[in-house]
Design brief:
By secondary structure, this protein is of the alpha/beta class. Helices cover 31% and strands 26% of the residues.
Length: 313
């Protein structure tokens, strides 16, 4: 038996319930993972809230797309996505369903060897934000020597974008609160504060406008600044304001988009390789015991977790 968090209805976090479940034995093409860390993401509570639609035939909702742990069983004639795979191996799994569990059986094609250099909480938080950042760059590519604007640069996706920009010789101007300036600088960005006069402050750092803009916050202030400062609307992308993207004619990406979803699956091994080499860091702000999933989600829902959050069974 295992424990698993589910939502029996749509609504607030009070619909969450911890239950005992049977873990099926892995068939060919499957592995069972004893979970040691679970990535907690905004998409988890958005699904509960009904932001993605209220289809009661989907109840109960299974939370959690990414976990890290140890293989406890493996199906016959089965290899994990990175090759090999045996009981006792440390692994990362993404994108899966029902990751808020102490143990679960998942498709082997979604399981990868965990680099020794990554601890379990960081490993469990690598894939979703990393794949999101790479998806943004897929839609709006950058080139060495360009100057780009990243809104929400101290957030988890923003931090990945900052690191990728630094690796690829791209100058990044990152908006954030003043309290997060040190974090933005630490990951190679030039920080600039949100608030009144944002456009003018950015112009001081980029007098000739910016080559591309990546919006990770979705505020009208961020979108307006990007439209005013970016050389072309086709070089703006958001993950947080689909409405403005549609009305103002720039790109938006999201895991629910089939093209984004397919692409994000293709970059999982690349992300693990970068993280394993120490070229990509995922800051984890706080961990919670598995029993405190509601508190973990509440912190992420606040919009100011200070970094990634992990549940620890």
């Amino acid at each position: 038996m295992a424990e698993q968090w589910i939502a029996n209805d749509f609504g607030g976090l009070d619909v969450l319930e911890l239950r005992e479940v049977d873990v099926p034995d892995p068939q060919s093409g499957e592995v069972t993972i004893d979970v040691l860390a679970i990535g907690v993401n905004p998409t988890d509570y958005k699904g509960i809230s009904g932001s993605y639609g209220v289809d009661r035939s989907r109840l109960p909702l299974m939370l959690g797309y990414e976990v890290a742990g140890i293989i406890s069983a493996i199906g016959s004639d089965t290899e994990i996505a990175s090759g090999g795979g045996a009981v006792g191996d440390e692994v990362i799994a993404f994108r899966i369903s029902g990751g808020y569990a102490t143990s679960l059986t998942v498709p082997a094609k979604d399981v990868f060897a965990k680099p020794e250099s990554l601890d379990f909480p960081e490993a469990a938080n690598l894939m979703l934000v990393g794949a999101t950042a790479l998806d943004m760059i897929r839609v709006v590519p950058w080139q060495e020597g360009e100057t780009v604007l990243i809104h929400g640069a101290s957030g988890s996706v923003g931090v990945v974008l900052l690191q990728l920009a630094q690796l690829q010789g791209v100058r990044a101007i990152g908006t954030s609160s003043e309290s997060a300036f040190g974090k933005v600088r630490g990951f190679g960005g030039d920080p600039i504060a949100y608030g009144d006069g944002l456009e003018a402050r950015i112009r001081q750092l980029a007098p000739g406008d910016v080559d591309a803009s990546y919006d990770c916050v979705g505020t009208d202030e961020a979108v307006d600044a990007s439209l005013a400062l970016t050389k072309s609307k086709d070089r703006i992308v958001t993950i947080a304001n689909q409405g403005r993207a549609k009305s103002d004619g720039f790109a938006a990406v999201g895991g629910g988009n089939p093209e984004s979803s397919a692409y994000r699956d293709t970059v999982r091994a690349d992300l693990i390789d970068l993280a394993g080499q120490g070229k990509l860091t995922i800051p984890v702000a706080k961990t919670f015991p598995f029993a405190e999933a509601v508190a973990a989600l509440d912190l992420v829902k606040s919009g100011h977790p200070g970094g990634k959050v992990a549940l620890l069974p």
